[in-house]
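Human: Note token order:
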Amino acid sequence: MAHTDQTIRRVLRREIAGTIGLLTDEHDFRAMRRYRSFTFDDHTAYLRQVEALLRTRASQGTHTTIALFDPEDYAEFCAKSGLDPDLPATRTRFTAELAAHGPTVPYDGQPLADLVPTLVDEAVRQATWEYASTLLARLGTCATCGEDLGRAAFARASRLLTRIVETAPAGHRHLVCSVSTTPEALTSALHADDDTDGGVRLDEADALEFTAVLALGLATHTPGGLVMRTSTPGSPDHIYGWRLRGYGLAPLTAAEVFDAYCTDVESGDLIAPESNVDYCAPPDLGDDTAAPGHHH
């Protein structure tokens, strides 16, 4: 009977998904060392042990999710919850919260050095989405028509994004939107590929973040830009773009795109253009680009 119980427990352990809160950089690692119960003293050794644990769990058939452990968020969580931050059980509870609401990536056997940049990118994407969404929600309603400004801007940005993707040449599309918000600029990237049904495949979370950033620029009439790079095997890459103007997009000329890509931002010196790249004007998005009639 005891042997059967042990077998069942081993089976159950394989059924339990786990989450590890990872301190990805030296600065965050040092911040956690102020807690006496956090007994690690070397970040490199800590990462090596985490990776060994991940490999062991994977070899046992156990699924593990990696969450970004932020010491400042942890301290805030402890203060709000009235929990002692210097307890392993509190860190476990915080990690469980991260698994439900925070940025995470699954461990699929990849080296930790490859996983960390993906995790950081996911954290940046989520933070950008939350920040842009919060600012959109604070815009209120239009004094003229009473429409929710943030919702209207998001709908308009979504239509523009659809047109931009639809008018792009077939192949891989890489789209970047930058908006000069304060205290710092917001940037969002989006990848799109052709699917087997002749449509376009987008990551939903990335598309939502991208749309929110574009919507914020439109709604606040903030300076910004949007650049598309398309890649098709056997053909030059095409790069083109628009600047945010009022509640719409104004196409950049081929010369403006060339200057943007071939000029050093800090020194102003010319940079050699990439080979096999065509800097060009964007396709026509139609009448919706300039937002005729009443807009916010």
